[in-house]
Known about the structure:
By secondary structure, the protein is α/β, with parallel strands linked by helices. It folds into 2 domains: 2-180, Flavin prenyltransferase-like (Rossmann fold), CATH 3.40.50; 190-400, 3-Layer(aba) Sandwich (Rossmann fold). It contains 13 helices and 19 strands. It has helices at residues 19-31, 50-56, 73-80, 91-99, 105-111, 125-128, 131-142, 168-179, 215-226, 253-263, 306-312, 330-340, 382-400; strands at residues 8-13, 35-40, 83-89, 117-121, 146-147, 151-154, 160-164, 190-195, 200-201, 207-208, 230-235, 246-249, 269-272, 279-281, 300-302, 319-326, 345-350, 362-369, 374-381. The strands form 5 sheets. It has an 8-stranded mixed beta sheet, sandwiched between helices. Strands 2-1-3-4-5 form a 5-stranded parallel beta sheet, sandwiched between helices. Helix 1 (19-31) packs across helix 8. The mean pLDDT is 93. The structure holds ligand PMT. Ligand PMT binds at residues 212-217, 253, 272-276, 278, 303, 305-307, 322-325, 337, 349, 351, 357-359.
Amino acid sequence: MxxxxxxxxxxxISGGIAAYKAVELCRQLVDAGAHVAPIMTEDAHRFIGPVxxxxxxxxxxxxSLWDDASPIPHTRLGQNADVIVVAPxxxxxxxxxxxxxxxxxLSATLxxxxxxxxxxxxxxxxxxxxxxxxxxxxxxxxxxVIIVEPQSGRLAGGDIGTGRLADTATIVEAVTTALNGSVKxxxxxxxxxxxxxxREPIDAVRVIANRSSGKQGYAIAExxxxxxxxxxxxxxxxxxxxxxxxxVPVETAQQMLDAVSCHAPSSDVVVMTAAVADFRPVQAIAxxxxxxxxxxxxxxxxxxxxxGFLGTRxxxxxxxxxxxxxxxxxxxxxxxxxxxxxxxxxxxxDVSADQVGFGxxxxxxxILLASGEALEVPLADKHTIATAVLDxxxxxxxxxxxx
Length: 403
Ligand code: PMT
């Protein structure tokens, strides 16, 4: 699946001659399966007509803070965006963003988002090389904004120099990279992930197990690693993973509890993706139960709820993430677990749905935040789901950050 498929992109177009190139950018993003919400500044209207952009985008052009059906369009657009790309970004838009101004819809949306932002400056060489612009660009880069540098070539009025908007393919690639977790928002963060299903011994050869393959847990671990985190996986499955990720192999719920208890206190983020047995045989039989000894009676006892246990001793600032595998009342059941286990967010999947949950390469989830926010992530490969989960983790971390 294309990595832009199903992603929400806000395309900001500001008032420069390169605005006409944003039309082609919009078309390519939509062709790649993205939902594109365009914002044009008043000045952009001097260069291109909004009808052209509206016809190609996924929704009509937004321009004003005041004439949208929603009373707060900037927060709706900013919060729903998976990424914001501004092409072209004029010196004025760059300065406003660096200063945190919110005088129009585009500038307000830029500061009302926690999504990655890709800025594609385009202006005359003298402006691009002005110390004020250089300082603003440096400041924005230091805040994690991705700058797609302008290219050298013919500029408006026949001049030649640096300041041409980067070509469309380069911008699309930067947007894709931003969405794929090349954003290094987890540098300096330790992330603990559990993966796979526990196996509880009945006798020397038989176990109570479940269908978890570990794919979703490993996808989260690998995306977190790509975003700069130090990652440990407590895993019941033997899967290839990226160099640099520490794997702690376990088999039973008790072993997972022991390993998690050891690593969780020093972790900034804990993601319990594993399917942990709720019950285990009171005692595993030594040796193999013989068939001719009759039907065995296996007495079960509850295991410790690892996530619930972590929720009772969560260090300050730690983000605790659970999963909820449901077959009915997805959101209500998951919200119950979110509250009972003192989580920051929970990822609910309806494991009775086609291609969702156990064993599949794909998943479809609703991410529920303790704040009450809910985000539906449509059917996608498990790495895309992992990216969405980590985006939410990042948002919650930013919200918890001392001001
Ligand atoms: O591994 P895959 O094949 O890729 O499949 C992914 C998945 C379906 C396993 C994953 O998406 C998922 O839903 N994981 C949670 C499975 C589960 O056990 O859900 P639950 O609703 O029973 O548990 C809720 C939460 O409590 C989970 O975070 C679970 O890890 C945790 N738990 C449960 C029981 C227990 N004794 N201790 C726990 O910590």
